Amino acid sequence: MSDAGDNTRKLQALDRELLWHPYAASPPAGEIYPVTSASGVRLRLADGRELIDGMASWWCAIHGYNHPVLNRAVQAQLEDMAHVMFGGLTHPPAIKLAQLLTRITPEPLQRVFFSDSGSVAVEVAMKMAIQYQYARGRGNKRKLVALRQGYHGDTFGAMSVCDPVTGMHHLFGDVLYPHFFVDAPDCPVDRECPESQMTQVADLLAEQGEQIAAVIVEPVVQGAGGMRFYSPDYLRKLRALCDAFDVLLIFDEIATGFGRTGKLFALQHADVTPDILCLGKALTGGYMTLAATLATEEITATISAGEGGAFMHGPTFMANPLACATAIASVELLLSQPWQREVQRIENALGNGLAPARELPQVAEVRTLGAIGVIELREPVDLASVQPRFVERGVWVRPFGKLVYCMPPYVMSDADLATLTGAMVEVVGQLPGG
Ligand SMILES: *Cc1c(COP(=O)(O)O)cnc(C)c1O
Where is this site: Participates in the substrate recognition with KAPA and in a stacking interaction with the adenine ring of SAM (predicted)? Predict the structure, then answer.
């Protein structure tokens, strides 16, 4: 232990001296745990401890870590080329991945724009919507409508459609473009969505439709903005409103895509097709950063025939071959397995495992959907003091605000799921307010 312990402390000291971590001060308030390797559903820490990973590295590592199929895909692509610019050049991994993505998403989504992160995929979607409206002579349609408690990324454009409160819009004031917000739907997943839930967005579209390019939502599950689930019926009604008021509909499935909610894409719960679709996170099985924005032929053709005759975006690492090859392997691996059964198995295990939390006085609500399990507390957790309690119990869970939640890799065994959910219930039960 002592060598490993020394090494851990050395890494922690250097980390505190040199690095920023996400959504943290630098150096951060809580302990940071050095990881030296990961395999299956386990993270191995520098001090030798192993943690069952309940987060799948923020929704990404759906097949677990160090997967032989994905490793082979990276190695094989590396032999050919790691990267090549995408301006004026193309390559088989980009073409094959685009074929795959257009095949598994709804038929009207026929064109793929690759980028390097989810936030950029959202920027691209917003830009496409605005450039499309401009190209068809609706240059006044420049605003978006987004849901409160939504999350779409951290770059300025994406931030401008995140929840204004949790996105801390007040800090940035007029450097953020003022888009429109409506209340998030409050209707359970298994029910219809009453018309009363639609009045705010319907009134807004009726009054301001002339200025509105698109509505952007995370279908069925709002992720980092609150881990909220809502009725797919809302999406059907929203689609009809967008059509009625000549407004595009953008679905951000960066968190929900690739099976997480029990359907391959959350839009399939509603059988609704957006005009633009954003994918990311689990796209490469958590191996590297890649995102995609898919659009209809009409949007593509209109932009291409418009002023300048081009869509003005092009990341340096656009369609990176290593990432595309890994994504192909990850999506094919998913589709080659009975993944629906596995996600259903996890949904059952999370439902059963987290149920005892319902009896706890600290808990406001417990909810599960697909491979997502959420304990919503009455009070926000103190992350710096709570995080070590999970690590002591051999699990990796990273709460935020009032939410203690998990979205495990789909390969997690029932025994590991029981350990994970048991630790979540136990730690929550020891919080103040019990
Ligand atoms: C994570 C996320 C993003 C941003 O993706 P990054 O890769 O972190 O830039 C956008 N939208 C949703 C719904 C997300 O969950």
Answer: 23
